[in-house]
Write a structure and sequence with these properties.
Subcellular location: Cytoplasm, Cytoskeleton
Largest sheet: none
Distance between the termini: 62 Å
Order of helices and strands: HHHHHHHHHHH
Number of strands: 0
Pfam families: XMAP215_CLASP_TOG
Protein name: CLIP-associating protein 1
Shape: elongated
Domain TOG: 8-214
Structural class: mainly alpha
HEAT repeats: 169-207
């Protein structure tokens, strides 16, 4: 087994397109990352790491929900393993996670949100993550738009308002209160209420400026 334990082996496994094969190797890859003795070259072989994480987004985007969940878990294992060094991959991974916030399966949506929150904790500041999440407010999938609102509520309840530049995020929420989808309208209002709970009058003034009736 020893000769299997390197990033090249890992990369070859992640390249697998076959669902059955992916489901077989997925847990092994997580165990491999969780054991630094088995995977000493994770940190050393950066080009290989780059390629591996690129491929992993293909797992996260898989139409097979079990593969998608494994992809999210493996990504989480990478985050645990390399921490702040994962920051360079946010541009690759976050768009895939935003897509999955709109998944048809609850568990995929929940795990995506949980990983996004972990990225805020382990790789970079919550606002740096949000800078990259904002396109999600305009996502073509209504569930992803809804999911981004829910994710902002979750961010507030985990980190509070302090680390967030809410003035950059509130306008997006305001736009979504006029979304064509009722679930998105509902979620954006709920999140605005959460924002209000955290920052109070300051946000009421912002909303007034945007022509949103104060009573709402």
């Amino acid at each position: 087994m020893e000769d299997h334990d390197n990033m090249e082996y890992f990369y070859q496994q992640v390249l697998q397109k076959d669902v059955t094969r992916r489901l077989q190797v997925g847990q092994d890859l997580i165990d491999y990352l969780n054991d630094p003795h088995r995977s000493p070259d994770v940190e050393q072989d950066k080009p290989r790491l780059d390629k591996t994480i690129d491929e992993l987004t293909g797992w996260i985007n898989s139409s097979n929900f079990k593969v998608a969940l494994l992809g999210i878990d493996i990504c989480g294992a990478f985050v645990d393993r390399i921490g702040e060094r994962f920051k360079g991959y946010l541009g690759t991974v976050l768009p895939a996670l935003v897509d999955r916030l709109g998944d048809g399966k609850d568990q995929v949506r929940e795990n995506s949100q949980a990983l996004i929150l972990r990225l805020m904790e382990q790789t970079t500041s919550p606002m740096n993550v949000w800078e990259r999440l904002t396109p999600g407010f305009k996502h073509k999938n209504f569930r992803s738009r809804e999911g981004i609102c829910l994710c902002l509520s979750a961010t507030l309840s985990t980190y509070g308002a302090q680390p967030l530049s809410l003035s950059k995020l509130v306008p997006h929420l305001c736009s979504l209160t006029g979304d064509q989808n009722p679930q998105v309208r509902e979620a954006s209002m709920t999140t605005l209420v959460d924002v209000y709970r955290h920052v109070g009058e300051k946000v009421r003034a912002d909303l007034g400026k945007r022509g949103l009736p104060a009573a709402r």
